[in-house]
Amino acid sequence: MPPRYWIGVEAASICEATGLSDPITGMQNLADRLLDEGGWSQPPAPPIVLASFQGVHDVRLATMQCAGRLVYRDDHLIIEINEEHSQGKRNFTANHEVSHTLLPTYAGQLVDDLETGTFSQGSEEELLCDIGAAALLLPPRWLRSHAVAGGPSISTLLDVASVFESSLEAAARQLTHLDCWPAAFICWEEGFRKDERVAKGQVMMPGFESFGGPRPKWRICRAYSTRSFHHFIPSNKSVEDTSLVAACCELDPFTWGIEDFDRGNRQIRMYCENYYASYRKGGIVRRRVVSVLVAAPTQGGQPTTPSPAQMEIL
Ligand SMILES: [Zn+2]
Fold it and tell me: Ligand 1 center to residue 113 CA distance, Å?
């Protein structure tokens, strides 16, 4: 995360409460204190119990548009979570709401979060609560041994998401944050180049229908790199239809091997493992491939084939 100049009262209050100068480290420290208070030493720490230590009466599922909220029911502060979301996303959201109550400035206000886990730079409070949620769900001090033992692989990513009961992308983000090895996790989704996107209401010129429009390609949607991975990953860059990434599908969900990736100004040769992990959002199934990229090894070995994962609902 790039360095930022914090201006809000939430960040200042965290620094004051923890004696730390960096609000991010401070937020992680507050999360660690809560885990210690609950006496946990291994994952998963149930969000409902973490919430109870913060005076939250219950964590409930609710039918709603937003991801989560802090509300009063019968004069009790409770957390409501979107019932449509899968367990990993629900856990992140519940911990995000718990993190609101960890802020020293929190005084029982109502909170309504349309989204969680975006790590948006637009709101300091929401960013800090996403950082708190990640620290509660995937505590670095517990995660490190899994990362070191498993190494950078799809199997490690899926195992961590399973053991810590998180989404794949929450696991990818936190694993790369530890910087145990030089690697990057990339999420590919099908899409168009900016100049190929069809504007709303645009129709094809008469007589040209048979030529069709541009076809979508697998493109980089989100990337999570460790600090020691020194390759820039350009957003929206595509791979060819013949690539190992594009070969991933429902019937063949795991591919791996050495591949040349187009970085824009040059090709880089990397070892990649690719896993087909479509997800559902807003009632729409979105096709997605998650890759891990590491420097090409001089001698190869057979990677561990990951166990099948259930479709995520985010
Ligand atoms: Zn929030």
Answer: 5
* Burial class, 227, CB count within 10 angstroms (exposed 0-12 / middle 13-18 / buried 19+): exposed
Distance from Cα 5 to the centre of ligand 1, integer Å: 20
pLDDT tens digit string along 238-274? 888 899 999 988 888 999 999 998 877 778 889 999 9
> Domain segments of the chain: what residues?
9-137, 141-313
Q: How many C-beta atoms surround the C-beta of residue 174 within 10 A?
A: 21
| Ligand 1 center to 103 CA (angstroms) | 11
Tell me the C-alpha distance between 194 and 215, whole Å.
Answer: 13
d(CA 19, CA 309): 41
Q: What is the pLDDT of residues 80-117, one digit of tens each?
A: 999 999 999 999 999 999 999 999 999 999 999 999 99
Superfamily name and number for 141-313 = irre protein (3.30.450.130)
Ligand 1 centroid – CA 227 distance (Å): 27
Give the list of residues 6+ apart from residue 239 with CB closer than 8 angstroms, or none: 188, 217, 218, 245, 246, 261, 262
Question: Which tokens in the block code for residue 56?
Answer: 């939250």
Distance CA 81, CA 83 (A): 6
Q: Which fold has domain 9-137?
A: Arc Repressor Mutant, subunit A (1.10.10)
Q: How far is the CA of 21 from the centre of ligand 1 (A)?
A: 23
- Distance of CA 289 from the midpoint of ligand 1 (Å): 28
Q: Are 164 and 138 in contact (CB under 8 A)?
A: yes
| 0.85 exceeded by pTM | yes
